[in-house]
Structure formats: C-alpha cells, structure tokens
Specification:
This protein is of the alpha/beta class. The protein contains 16 helices and 21 strands. Strands 7, 8, 9, 10, 11, 14, 15, 16 and 18 form a 9-stranded mixed beta sheet that branches. Strands 3-4-2-5-6-1-21 form a 7-stranded mixed beta sheet, with helices on both faces. The chain has a 3-stranded mixed beta sheet with strand order 12-13-17, covered by helices on one side. Strand 12 and strand 13 form a beta hairpin. Helix 6 (154-178) packs across helix 16, helix 9 packs antiparallel against helix 11 and helix 10 (278-293) packs across helix 15 (469-479). It is elongated. The termini are close together. The chain binds ligand BES, manganese (II) ion and zinc ion.
Length: 521
C-alpha cells in the first residue's frame, strides 16, 4: 500500500477524486462553509451522526463532493485511540473490493499520534490473509492519502513516516503468525529472516542442529528432539551505528507448533498453538521496520525455532538436560518448553555484550489470566528499561504492564535432581517463568515481554495482532534519538545511544512525505 501525507482542508477535500473519502469528525463540530463541513454539521444537528468513535454515516455520490463514497466517522475527542477505534469500525468498508484509492482527512487538527493511528489502523483494517486461502478477496486498497488541515509539522511528517514502517513490520509479523504450522516451519521462518537480509544494513545467519549441538545448547536441542522438522537458530543483525556500539538484543520465542510434548495439551483450541512463534514473528517485524527507517542503532535478533512434539524420541517429564550456561535443568513439564529454548538463546546472546536484552515470548497461559489481551506482561530487572518500554507501549498504543520479580518467586523452581526445575507450581505462573529466564541473564539490563495474551485473538476474529512490533520499534527509535513524541508530547533523549536531531532529520526528508507499506511480507 502506498501512503501520501498532504495538507488538505475540507474545502480542498471536496475535489479529491477517489473511491472513498473518510472524514474524521470530532466533537468540535465542523464550522467551514464547504460541502463536507455543511453536510457533517447538518447530520450532527439532526442527530443522524454522532461524534463518538464507532458511530458513522455513509453517503453516496453526494452533491459537490468528487469522491464516490463518503464516510463521516465520529472520532470523539480526536485522540489517537479514538481515531484507531473509529477506523477499526470502518474495516469492512476499507476492505471493500471496489475501493482502490482512499483519502482519509482530519476534520480538526491532527497530532503526530493521531496521524500514526490513521496509517497503522488503515493498514491493519484492510489486511486480508490469503496465503492458504487464495480465493479470499485480497486487499484492493492500494493508495491512501492522509489529509491534515494545517501544513504538516516536522513531528507529523516524522510520525507519518515511522508509522508507515511500523505498519509494514506489524503486517509481516501478523502474516507469519497466521500461517499454519505446516506453512511456517523453522526452516521457512529462517528463509523469511534470510530474505530480510536483502535490505540495507541487515545480515542474517541461520544455524541447524549440528551447529546448535556444537554450541552446547542442550535445552534447545531437548525441545526439538521429538520433532521431525529440524530446528533453526536464526541470527539477524541490523548495523546502523558504529561497530563498537553495544547492540539491543531481541530474543523471540519461535515454537512453530506447541503440542505440549509428552505433557500434551488438551485438543480444544490446540490449533492456536501455531501462534507460539509470535515472539519470533515480532522480531522479524521489527527488522522489517528497521529496514525502512534505517535508524542509527545496532540491533541483534535471535530466534530459536523448533516444534514441540510428542514422540518416541521426545523428552520425558523428569529428564535432566544441560543448558549452554552449564546449569542442569529438570524438565518436569515438557509443555514449559518456551523457557528451555529461550534460556540457551539468552546465554548465546552474551557474545554480543548487549546494551540491553529484551526477550519476547508467548510464554504462559498464566499471563493471559493475569492481563488478558489488553496489555503484555513486562518483567525487568532494570527500572529505566522498564519505564522506557512502558512509555514506548503507551506511545505506540501497544501497552504492557510491569510484573514483579521478587527473589521469593524463584523458590518454587528448586529441584532435587538438577540446578533448577523448568516449572514452579500454578501460582504466579507468569512470574516463575520469568524467574527461570532471569537465571540465564548476564550483567546487562534485561526485560521479558510475555505476549501470550496479546499476540493473537481467538474466536470469530481469530488472527495474529502483530504485537508488540509497535512497542519495540517505538523503543528502538527512542534509543536512536529518532522517536515520535511520546503520548505526553515529550521527546526523550536516548539512553546510552547517540541522540540524533529528530526534527532536522524529518525536515531533510520532508519534500517526499510518501511512504509505501508493502502488501507482501
Ligand atoms: N505456549 C504456551 C503458553 C500459552 C498457553 C500461550 C496458552 C497462550 C495460550 C507455553 O509453552 C506453555 O504451554 N506454558 C505452560 C507452562 C506450564 C506448563 C508451567 C502454561 O502456561 O500452561
Ligand atoms: Mn508449551
Ligand atoms: Zn509454548
């Protein structure tokens, strides 16, 4: 999809030729004398249009308006969340096969956050999964103009460009999340990572069982040993800064299918365990956005990818394995496999001397119970990192919530037969999983995002959400001094990274406020 940002008052919008003109109408009634403002004002006056998000009024071939279809969308107070909700409500229209070119214009002032919300929500709402459903009506919406009433400020241009990149990253993550396990094997995930290496500053290395065995990753190997599909350890690098600048390392759980292994899961909804690689997909999505944005920062992405299967060769409850760190682990429950693949990837990450390490994993059902699908679980040993990630989540509308890591929570992981057990009891299951991972973390700030509740939606709207790509890209741009202003409007200098003058950068790119969000991953 191609996006353009332009200055477009409602008067000028009347002459925009397009299949669909979406007008975002806030509580502040439009006061202009143009056809659109008058229509909207009348509709509000007569009670036919409410300005609450979710309320809308559709017009066809309206007099004095060039667009074939017009959709007046209530956007409440006009903030990013309201814009997002309003456009989500218009998803069916945005997916209509007759709509190829759309204009979305703000009836009232646009903020950087609300402009970003338009781009990201339009891409999100018009996404159609077709990989294994080729007869589905593929996305036809190809060009979108985002119209803002006042000359675009540097902040708005920057937010627009960032959001186009984020939208592409989110879409790549959703696409890989949605693909069934037989179409998203560890090998295919690795190929997806390798194709990202076609972009500037990105490198990719893929290791197989022999190399992983040589590294001594006994925990990762143990999970993979019951599967016929060979494991892959995927290593992505984005080199945007000096070689000696320590990287942010992202580790994504890549279980391409989680049956539970010998501690097998119940059949109901087991299909959803194809989503157990959404942490890995979010790492791919972040790299897709980095490819677009080219920020001045170094990032490493590590993905341990394999299936968790029951088999004659599979690990059994009570088996003890030796992790790459040297710690022995008693595998009391083969369904607690995520932490086993992650612990070896975390140990491996030490070779990069990370500035920060963030792991992203659909790790525990307990986190779904604790936080549902609204916020991801955030665990961190470092207050500054935790607050940066929380702020990034708020700014990107991709929230997380900090959970505790008290020493006492680690007690339940004690084992009589190994250095550590891989499960505690049922109480505080999301926390004990994080405590397990913490044992493998070195002397650098670490955070763990449990995305079990947020990475996908079940039920009729079953599908991947692409979270937390938005949060992670927002955080990384902050580290590169290149972030859009956060929700409170404050621009925060980077911690540990070179702060680039964001406004200057945006100004340099300003003449072409255009960006393309690709249709294919
Ligand atoms: N992939 C699951 C976590 C999960 C479950 C995510 C349901 C989303 C929905 C993970 O590998 C797992 O099975 N965790 C176990 C851990 C338990 C055995 C300690 C769980 O949460 O039940
Ligand atoms: Mn499991
Ligand atoms: Zn799992």
């Amino acid at each position: 999809m191609n996006f353009d940002l332009k200055t477009l008052g409602l008067q000028a919008a009347t002459t925009e030729k397009c299949d669909l003109l979406v007008v975002l109408v806030t509580e502040a009634k439009p006061a202009g004398k143009d056809a659109i403002s008058m229509l909207a004002a009348q509709a509000i006056q007569s009670g036919d249009l409410e300005t609450k998000p979710g309320k809308s009024l559709a017009l066809y071939q309206a007099a004095g308006i060039a667009a074939r279809r017009v959709l007046l969308l209530g956007t409440g107070n006009g903030d990013a969340r309201s814009v997002q909700r309003a456009l989500q409500g218009a998803a069916a229209t945005l997916r209509a096969p007759s709509i190829k070119r759309a204009v979305v214009c703000f009836g009232a002032a646009a903020t950087p956050q609300s402009v970003a919300a338009v781009v990201e929500t339009v891409v999100h709402a018009s996404y159609v999964y077709t990989t294994t459903k080729p007869k589905a009506d593929a996305r036809t919406l190809g060009r979108v103009v985002v119209g803002v009433p006042d000359a675009e400020s540097d902040d708005v241009v920057e937010a627009f460009q960032n959001s186009c990149a984020v939208a592409q990253g989110v879409e790549l993550a959703r696409e890989w999340g949605n693909r069934p396990a037989n179409h998203a094997t560890p090998t295919l995930l690795a190929e997806a990572a390798q194709s990202l290496a076609g972009h500037a500053r990105i490198q990719c290395k893929v290791m197989g069982p022999a190399e992983v065995a040589k590294l001594g990753m006994g925990a990762f190997l143990a999970v993979a040993q019951g599967a016929a599909e060979p494991l892959r350890l995927i290593e992505l690098r984005y080199n945007g800064a000096a070689k000696n600048q320590a990287p942010v390392v992202l580790v994504g759980k890549g279980i391409t299918f989680d049956t539970g292994g010998i501690s097998i899961k119940p059949s109901a909804e087991m299909d959803e365990m194809k989503y157990d690689m959404c942490g890995a997909a979010s790492v791919l999505g972040v790299f897709r956005a980095l490819a677009e944005l080219q920020p001045d920062i170094n990032v490493v992405g590590l993905i341990p990818a394999c299936e968790n299967m029951p088999d004659g060769k599979a690990i059994k409850p009570g088996d003890v394995v030796t992790s790459m760190s040297g710690q022995t682990i008693e595998i009391l429950n083969t369904d607690a496999e995520g932490r086993l693949v992650l612990c070896d990837a975390i140990t491996y990450a030490a070779r990069y001397k990370p500035a920060v390490l963030i792991d992203i994993a659909t790790l525990t059902g307990a986190c779904v119970i604790a936080l549902g699908g609204v916020r991801s679980g955030l665990f961190s040993t470092d207050d500054a990192l935790a607050s940066d990630l929380q702020a990034a989540g708020e700014a990107a509308q991709d929230g997380c919530w900090r959970m505790p890591l008290d020493e006492d929570y680690g007690e339940s992981l004690k084992s009589n037969f190994a250095d550590v057990g891989n499960v505690g009891g049922r109480p505080a299951g999301a926390v004990t999983a994080a405590k397990f991972l913490q044992r493998f973390v070195g002397d650098y700030p670490w955070a763990h995002l449990d995305i079990a509740g947020t990475a996908w939606k079940g039920g009729a709207a079953k599908g991947s959400t692409g979270r937390p790509v938005g949060l992670l890209v927002q955080y990384l741009l902050g580290q590169a001094g290149n972030a859009s202003p956060s929700a409170d409007g404050a621009k925060k200098p980077a911690a540990g990274a070179r702060a680039a003058p964001a406004a200057k950068k945006a100004a340099a790119r300003k003449p072409s406020a255009k960006a393309a969000a690709a249709r294919k991953p």
